């Protein structure tokens, strides 16, 4: 079993979108994929992200058929805020998040985990979203925005990961599909990075997808 943590440079950048696309892409590689959204805030009637993720997962993994959106989350809160602020009664227990992770591992060979917000989103007064990554021993994918301000957000997220020695892959979600990215962001990435990928390219990157397949095979041996 291995896991991949999907984070982003901020909220609303495309973590859920990316995770759903990855569920489909890994499934076409024959990987038995599962999904986990440890904490979702802004949940009044039902957890929207967990619901979308579960529906995508159920299409490719029968072991998720009997689960509800609440089965693939550890905590949900009504307030649209960071978990720390949304968790008014201070109920978050990190061990409970790990327990759910361990439980969901049983249903898949690769567990995709969608974070909440960005990396430095607080869960408790001494635990941040980024701290879940080593706890899960997960590989990491950082999804970057393509809008104005994203260079700064991307570099800061990378620094946070590097400062904790967390290896990661990253990609740019060309969500807005406008020309401004070519002018206001791409020139810097071309100059600064020896290589970088869009999400679209990553989803077709068979080396990336198959690297998880090999890991799974190794695990099963
Ligand atoms: P998150 O908060 O990081 O999980 O962001 P979401 O994945 O929920 O994305 C925010 C909104 O933008 C949602 O309505 C998505 O469907 C939409 N979205 C994100 N990325 C893309 C993209 O690449 N293409 C399209 N068409 N919509 C996107
Ligand atoms: Mg989301």
Notable characteristics:
two-stranded parallel ribbon; alpha/beta; 5-stranded parallel β-sheet; binds guanosine-5'-diphosphate; 10 helices; Rossmann fold; binds magnesium ion
Overview of this structure, please?
The chain has 221 residues and is an alpha/beta fold. It has a single domain (2-213), classed as 3-Layer(aba) Sandwich (Rossmann fold). The chain is 43% helix and 17% strand. It has 10 helices and 9 strands. It has helices spanning 15-28, 48-60, 83-86, 94-105, 132-136, 150-163, 180-184, 186-192, 199-203, 206-220, and strands at residues 2-8, 33-36, 39-41, 75-77, 110-114, 122-124, 127-128, 139-144, 169-172. A 5-stranded parallel β-sheet has the order 2-5-1-8-9, with helices on both faces. It has a two-stranded parallel ribbon with strand order 3-4. The site of magnesium ion has 4 residues, from helix 1.
What is this structure, in a nutshell?
The chain has helices at 15-28, 48-60, 83-86, 94-105, 132-136, 150-163, 180-184, 186-192, 199-203, 206-220, and strands at residues 2-8, 33-36, 39-41, 75-77, 110-114, 122-124, 127-128, 139-144, 169-172.
Q: Which structural class should the secondary elements be placed in?
A: alpha/beta
Low-pLDDT segments:
216-221
Q: What ligands are attached or bound here?
A: guanosine-5'-diphosphate, magnesium ion
What share of the residues lie within helices?
40-55%
| Average pLDDT | 94
CATH class group = Alpha Beta
Q: How far apart lie the N and C ends?
A: 11 Å
Characterize the main sheet.
5 strands, parallel
Please state the CA-atom Rg, rounded to the nearest Å. 17 Å
Query: What is the tally of beta strands?
Result: 9
Named CATH topology: Rossmann fold
CATH architecture: 3-Layer(aba) Sandwich
Cross-sheet strand order for the largest sheet: 2-5-1-8-9
Superfamily at the CATH H level? P-loop containing nucleotide triphosphate hydrolases
Count of individual helical segments: 10
Tally of individual domains = 1
Cα shape = globular
- The secondary-structure element order is EHEEHEHHEEEHEHEHHHH
Strand % is: 15-25%
């Amino acid at each position: 079993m291995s896991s991949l943590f999907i984070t982003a440079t901020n909220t609303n950048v495309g973590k859920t979108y990316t995770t759903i696309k990855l569920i489909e892409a890994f499934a076409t590689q024959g990987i038995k994929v599962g999904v986990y959204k440890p904490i979702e805030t802004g949940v009044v009637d039902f957890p929207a992200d967990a619901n979308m993720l579960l529906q995508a997962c159920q299409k490719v993994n029968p072991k998720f058929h009997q689960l509800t959106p609440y089965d693939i989350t550890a905590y949900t809160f009504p307030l649209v805020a960071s978990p720390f602020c949304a968790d008014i009664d201070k109920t978050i227990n990190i061990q409970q998040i790990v327990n759910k992770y361990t439980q969901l591992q049983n249903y898949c060979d690769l567990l995709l985990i969608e974070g909440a917000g960005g990396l430095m989103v607080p869960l408790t007064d001494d635990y941040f979203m980024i701290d879940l990554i080593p706890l899960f021993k997960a590989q990491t994918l950082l999804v970057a925005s393509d809008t104005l301000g994203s260079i700064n957000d991307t570099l800061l997220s990378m620094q946070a990961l590097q400062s904790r020695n967390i290896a990661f892959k990253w990609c740019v979600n060309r969500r807005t599909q406008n020309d401004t990215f070519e002018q206001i962001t791409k020139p810097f990435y071309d100059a600064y990075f020896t290589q970088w990928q869009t999400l679209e390219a990553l989803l077709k990157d068979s080396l990336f997808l198959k690297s998880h397949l090999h890991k799974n095979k190794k695990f099963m041996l």
